[in-house]
Amino acid sequence: MNRILLSLAIMLMVFGCKRSRYMDGLISDETRTSIKTIDPLVLKPSPEAPEPVLAEPNTPAPATQVISLEQCRSLALENNLTLKAQLIAPTLAAESFNQERAKFEAVLDTGMRYRRASDTDSSSRRNYFNVDVEQPLATGGVLSVGLPFSDGHSSNSGGLSDAAVSVSYVQSLLRGAGIQTSTPHDAKDR
Question: Would you say residue 93 has pLDDT above 60?
């Protein structure tokens, strides 16, 4: 059991919550600071704008209404949906950036299995533990490190423990290749 805890602690220290080396080169400092330093636009009502007077609903609207240039600007900014959408655009951009960055975060996967068997002559029990860390790479590949461990006890042979380390690297070599990429998209191109 101490071996399992020691192995888990080593795996967490090696692949713990740290910033990926690959993420530092993907986003320029200029882009990173421009996302952080966007100031929101604060709209204040015009000091000259009088309180609106509500008309009786059954009376016809006047043919013309005289308003000042400042009142016209204030009403236009008040009802401008494009401007209101632009106020939340930096928040949406930052969230989209965080979602893309999350694709490169490491994944810790653990598992445990228990097996018990008994016959008329003997009985045995076996515990299986597994700790895996998968790190997506900027190249599109995945680096995986695993630590399977098992511990067992049998009435005939006593205790037996197994431990191993597995490392795998998977890189897709044909990403973006295939029939659709290598053939024309329109019939007129053929």
Answer: yes
DSSP 124-159: EEEEEEEEEEEEE-TTS-EEEEEEEEEEEEETTTEE
Tokens standing for 118?
A: 């008994």
In degrees and rounded to multiples of 5, residue 118 shows phi and psi of -145, 140
- Which regions of the chain does DSSP assign to beta strands (E)? 107-118, 123-136, 142-154, 158-163, 166-170
DSSP per-residue letters across 61-73 = PPS-----HHHHH
Query: Cα–Cα distance between 107 and 70 in angstroms, integer?
Result: 56
CA distances from 182 to 21, 167, 185 (A): 34, 34, 9
pTM of the model: 0.43
Please give the structure tokens belonging to residue 2: 């101490």
Give the end-to-end CA distance of the chain in Å, rounded to a whole number.
66
